[in-house]
């Protein structure tokens, strides 16, 4: 008999409020409900996860070190059971830096990239044939500061690879820079002499995304609550700033705001960004000729302190991790308008930070 298709959701959390670490959930699309398949808690605070392009492996960035005296974090590699989505540990290695906050995998499936917020540094790892990881292959320390009170030192926040894996773009919130590193796919390393793209002082670049089909890139700036728009030179990977747009709803007052995450709709017509403070997602329409953005509206996230969110790969739903209210809120996505509508359905998870999705056919 043919295997019934399944949808699996992986959730990374802070180890607080009785969280059990990484949650592996089976998603019922018809009823918008989930069943817990597995929980995994190898270390404290598995806050960010990354799927391998072949969907056979998953990598988790844990804030806790390999032992009690280790101030650095730990990266754990897992194999994914092809029929259930369950995780089995392959190996673990030191993250080489303090407080890993973001992990990503190059699209060719050869390198893992890791960002450390507190340490202000980055590390890379070669992916082995088993799906496990080598010890650290590259480690680069950033230095400097900028004009905001939260920018007294470097704060690496994400590394996003180009579509061909040739480059990786490192967003450093503390020094207001996006650094373009050359990737050595064979060695699993990055070149130590990056091309530096300076952002607006006080912006705080946090997360970064490429348009799925057009030569444009977008930087979410946490401290200024803005999105900067770049044209992408596809011959050499260079970025050129072409615009910048506000994230906030002018009709709402909030003393604290901090931009968090940014993602495209599957068709590339709409761009979404999350804000902690106003606790909403801003919806942008993407001009398909110029790459510039037009604000369409703001959608309350159905909870407090939205961190990562996931645009459904089927194009119909959006899942938002509201960390302070311990819930993943589910929204429908109108592909004609780009707007989101609350379903009233929530997945109760303690301190959720990260969401990803796997389809088992």
From TrEMBL:
<dbReference type="InterPro" id="IPR015943">
    <property type="entry name" value="WD40/YVTN_repeat-like_dom_sf"/>
</dbReference>
<dbReference type="InterPro" id="IPR011048">
    <property type="entry name" value="Haem_d1_sf"/>
</dbReference>
<keyword id="KW-0313">Glucose metabolism</keyword>
<keyword id="KW-0378">Hydrolase</keyword>
<dbReference type="InterPro" id="IPR050282">
    <property type="entry name" value="Cycloisomerase_2"/>
</dbReference>
<comment type="similarity">
    <text>Belongs to the cycloisomerase 2 family.</text>
</comment>
<dbReference type="GO" id="GO:0017057">
    <property type="term" value="F:6-phosphogluconolactonase activity"/>
</dbReference>
<dbReference type="GO" id="GO:0006006">
    <property type="term" value="P:glucose metabolic process"/>
</dbReference>
<keyword id="KW-0119">Carbohydrate metabolism</keyword>
<dbReference type="GO" id="GO:0005829">
    <property type="term" value="C:cytosol"/>
</dbReference>
<dbReference type="Pfam" id="PF10282">
    <property type="entry name" value="Lactonase"/>
</dbReference>
<dbReference type="InterPro" id="IPR019405">
    <property type="entry name" value="Lactonase_7-beta_prop"/>
</dbReference>
<protein>
    <submittedName>
        <fullName>6-phosphogluconolactonase</fullName>
        <ecNumber>3.1.1.31</ecNumber>
    </submittedName>
</protein>
